[in-house]
Amino acid sequence: MLPSTDEVGADTRRQLLLEILETESLFPHFQPIVDMKKNEVIGHEALIRGPAGSVMASPGALFQTAIENNLLHTLELLCRRFAIEKFAELKPGGKLFLNISASLLGTPEHTEGFTSELLQELGISIQDIVIELSEQHPFDQHGLTNSAVQYYRNMGFQVAVDDLGTGYSGLKLWSELNPEYVKIDRHFVSRIDTDAVKREFVRSICNISSAMGCKVIAEGIERREEVQTLMELGISIGQGFYLGYPSPEPQPTWTPLAINEIQVAESIAESETNETALALLRQAPAVAPDDTVLAVSELFRANSDMSALAVVQDGIPLGVVRKSDLLELFSTQYGRALYEKKPASRILSDDVLLVENDMSLVDVSRLVTGQEHSALQQDIIITQDGCYLGMGNLRDLLKRITELKIQNARYANPLTLLPGNVPINQELEALLKRTADFYVAYFDLNNFKPFNDSYGYSKGDQVIRLLGELLTCHASHANNFIGHIGGDDFVVIFRSPDWQMSCERILREFDKEVRGFYSPKDLQNEGLWSTDRKGVRSFFPLLGLAIGVVHPDPYRCGSFHEVAELAAMAKKEAKKHTHSALFVSRRRTTGLSVSGSDDKRQA
């Protein structure tokens, strides 16, 4: 593990920063800013990184050390030049967002017209540049905020207020500057879907921005649920690791793929494939911590298809060296000379996912989606009993999950899009094979045929979709499996301990929602008249939901056929009631007789 900046003395940090400035060892990165409604990249924020593997690699360490040594503006001007030059070289399109300190205007380091002249020289339009002023710095104490904005506006630049909500001038700064963009601080975006106070704050920001004609950008988006909530609140522009990581090469387009596609795996039965992380394994050489950076470079040259190499000591992986980091390091004027004889541990990154070779692909995908922002790197280290085995990558994981998604769709019920009989049976077989503990709930509608005959197949389909939605809403625990056998028959394979509570909640919700499908007359009569299967005119109560639950013994049930038979018997008992009912069977195998009555619970 590399030392943190806190563990390195102030003199050492100053010397490292001076070396970086002298050798110009700074590497611009670009994070996409996405219009989530249109699914397109509208611009990039320019960020900076120090030498990979150095304690000065992060922008936080760079700028904090620069502030401590009165070198902030020297560093900032260099960063700005590198960002603009790289943006001009790569031509990703859209706007370039540049972070600028307003106080720089009052320093000797400031050269009037520096930015506009550089843009003109490189053929970039001033209209494509947005100047970001951060609320994290108390600009007003310099008396330069308004003059800075006016200075840049007069030159044709647009302005953004960054980190709104973090303190200092806040709304006052926003109202006085009337910027073209305002960026909501990540604190108010993180888990906004679960926090009513944050939603109200953001809703207020949206209302104010609408009145001011200002565009709002949500920062720090890391989860799909945050995207959904923000768009419901009226914010369509966002930035964050969920939408795209900072990268040396700007991302010109955005496809809502990475985590969205991986999360498909959570709805795919593990049994659709018995594949584990071994399916992703690529035999790859490893490097030792004391191998030189030059030796690592030669190893990459010999293995051109590898994007990262594991650093291993005594069989235990410590992290990876990424090819992109190495190329960045060697691309500077003195980078190769300074680092080629240094040990690989100097450029080691421990920001990598480690998985055991016998972990299922579904669990690997859940690990990826459950990690914090840095987890979605493209490389995966695969181990056996903790020892290095080889490498995998996210691309192969996505490819396999896409294949599983297609396979799953082939067997999905067209009405509800839930998995059908084949994946249901495969899931049961896999659980039995692992002797896992699980419950099976069989759902069937009471009085469905007379309802369908009276109200038509279209309303009948609506009721079936309602039941599918209720199951998805109340039984979608990560380890559960929801399937649609066909018609009005559904099954949920519960691995979560709250199976009974979920079933009872589904019963209550169904009884409440289904009344909306009836006419006032039938509601008043609590049922309808129709012809039964024998052709006799009869009265039928309102639709009810029958649930039969079984707890199969995985050691004595020979196959999914036996589990299906158990579930069908339990469902048959539940359907003896014309109203909604839950029946829990005590029978655990088809060949086992149980004394005493089965446990019945009626809703």
From TrEMBL:
Q: Which GO terms describe its molecular function?
A: cyclic-guanylate-specific phosphodiesterase activity
UniProt-listed SUPFAM superfamilies: CBS-domain pair (SSF54631), EAL domain-like (SSF141868), Nucleotide cyclase (SSF55073)
Could you list this entry's UniProt keywords, alphabetically sorted: CBS domain
Q: Which PROSITE patterns match?
A: CBS (PS51371), EAL (PS50883), GGDEF (PS50887)
Q: Where is the EAL domain?
A: 10-260
- What sequence ranges are listed for the domain CBS? 280-338
- Ranges of residues in domain GGDEF: 436-587
Give the organism the record lists. Answer: Neptuniibacter caesariensis
Recorded protein name is Signaling protein (EAL,CBS,GGDEF domains)
